[in-house]
Amino acid sequence: MTEQAGKSLFQQVIEHSTDAVVLMDDAGLITYFNRAAEQLFRYDREQVLGRPLTMLMPEALREKHRKALARHHSSKRNTVPGNPRRFQGLRSDGEMFQAEITLSQHTDNGRLYFAGTIRNISQQLRAQRALMRSEQNFRTLIEKMPEAVAVHRNGRFLYVNSTMVHLLGYDSQEELVGEPVLDIVHPDERQIVRKRISTMMLSGEPPPPLEERFICRDGTVVHAEVVAMTIEYEGHPCILAIGRDLTERKQITARMMQADRMIAMGMLAAGVAHEINNPLTYVSANIHFALESLAAMRPFLDSLGADLRQRLGDGAAHELLASSGFRAALDSVDDSSDVLGEAREGSRRIRDIVRDLKTFSRADDTRQESLSVRELIESTINMAFNEIRHRARLVKDYSQDPRVLGNSSRLGQLFLNLLVNAAHSIPAGDAAHNEIRVVLYVHENEVVVEIRDTGKGIQPRHMPRLFEPFFTTKPMGQGTGLGLYVCHRVVKAHGGTIEIESELGQGSVFRVKLPLAPESPPTEEPFSSETTPSPSRARLLIVDDEPMILRGLQRLFRDEHEVALSKTAREVLGKIREGQRFDLILCDLMMPEMSGIQLYEKLRDLAPGQAERMVFMTGGAFTPRAREFLDRVSNPQVEKPFDPLKLRAMVKDWMG
């Protein structure tokens, strides 16, 4: 190939190059401009040939270029740096772009020329910046992920995110990076994890998720579900592990199961209370009847003995009474009275226990009524006393007996939680030197209940979180973290406040403030006057499906009133249709076939005055309809088991 042919070929290659090629003479004027340069700078070559190269660069760079060219001439160097350099180009329309230029120089006929190969790298730089932003965003995303993320190789951590640092209780990532992976795995599971890592590195296949236990810095254990896979990290095959903390989920599941058990226990308690109340009703009535009978018999026997002594003389009377067993009969009457008195006290204690069970098992959380706070606290103490008695002396400081408007079940739960919480703050075994004091008083139209303990106190850092749900300082399985949260909600729902004072090693005070109940308006007479005012001996109808309750109440009232009995509501309807009328109808609320509610509704059409004279006896188990009914009607109601003397007095009041 001739020299001329070679030069022609070279020019064609340069002309069709995808890179811009610009030639400049030693004076800084453009002598060649290929097609790619025309496209890059958006000039026709006629517009640039013979003009200064500085027209292709921003104003700020032109003086710098001229000085560099002058320094090159003065140095008389034969070459220019051949490595690519970045510079900013300027198009004909004023748009600037990032470019990379590679320079060379050559001499032709004794004259120096410079050649520049220019490549537009704006898109490349944008891609690089986008990649850097993407990597930064990706790293930020990983850092802020709620899951723990770790990368490890050869059994040591290369990277951990902040979630994992927090999960394990460390202060910084540096404390974990470089440490052995198996050190944080529970000893019982290290062999499984070691085998899992080995299999994964050999096969490259991700294994199924695995639930693992991690050892935290303070020795506590957290549960996590771990997903693992192989990745390339910093040019090496590694394992990426992502762990989701299951600790709270397990706690919530356990608490939900406990809540389900508590609901079931509440339903069971309500059912048991109802079943106990029926037999307890007639047991109490019969004990009362037997005691009254014995009390009436003793004066008669004493009078008989005195009469015999008067007629026969002391000696003969004593011998006769001794030989006939009369003296033994007197002693038996006394002993029987004592035994029955103890049985009556036992039945009262059973009644109180059942009443307390009903208080904490009621399903309706919205029903409100005027409540004696003192009675409510006493009932709660009965429930909590077994937790208290081995830990502290219980001191009651009641200056008043105020009333609040509220729900007995929810307020009972409030005071029960606080009492149990106070008891658990005191170690068992030293009750003589510890105290739980319950203080009740009224201050500025508020009922104040203080529960003071001499327990270990509360850490200051825990005080702001005490009312958070699921927050507890007790070990797993010994506390739900819901007790004080429930207390706060109950107090707030009743329009009150709860305050805490505590000192480490000295004890705590929980202070509940509730609005004082408004004074109740005088109650209206519940009965109409379809019949004339009842005489002192009235007609009483007792309706209950439990025969022994009927007999027990019949014995209780037969000396004072004319008593009729019915085992079913249908019998009552028959009596009323026959024209019978009663001054008072004591009727069980819940009965098979036809309930007391249905009887009331039928009597309201058949004999309205008799419906209004009904008094409902309840055993403690209420359906939603029964609760709604009792709230709607004005008829009196009495809960089984009743105190016989009080029931007699109430009947007199109801008779008017």
- Count of β-strands: 22
Overall spatial form = elongated
Alpha carbon gyration radius? 48 Å
Question: Distance N terminus to C terminus?
Answer: 139 Å
Helix content percent band: 40-55%
**How is the main sheet built?**
5 strands, antiparallel
What percent strand? Answer: 15-25%
Low-confidence stretches: 528-534
Number of helices: 19
In spatial order, strands of the major sheet run 2-1-5-4-3
Q: What's the average pLDDT? A: 81
Structural class by SSE content: alpha+beta
Outline the structure in words:
With 656 residues, the chain is α+β, with helices and mostly antiparallel strands. The chain has 19 helices and 22 strands. The strands form 5 sheets. A 5-stranded antiparallel sheet has the order 2-1-5-4-3. A 5-stranded antiparallel sheet has the order 7-6-10-9-8. Helix 10 crosses helix 12. The longest helix has 66 residues. The radius of gyration is 48 Å and the shape is elongated. The relative contact order is 0.05.
Q: Top keywords for this entry?
A:
656 residues, alpha+beta, five-stranded antiparallel sheet, 45% helix, elongated
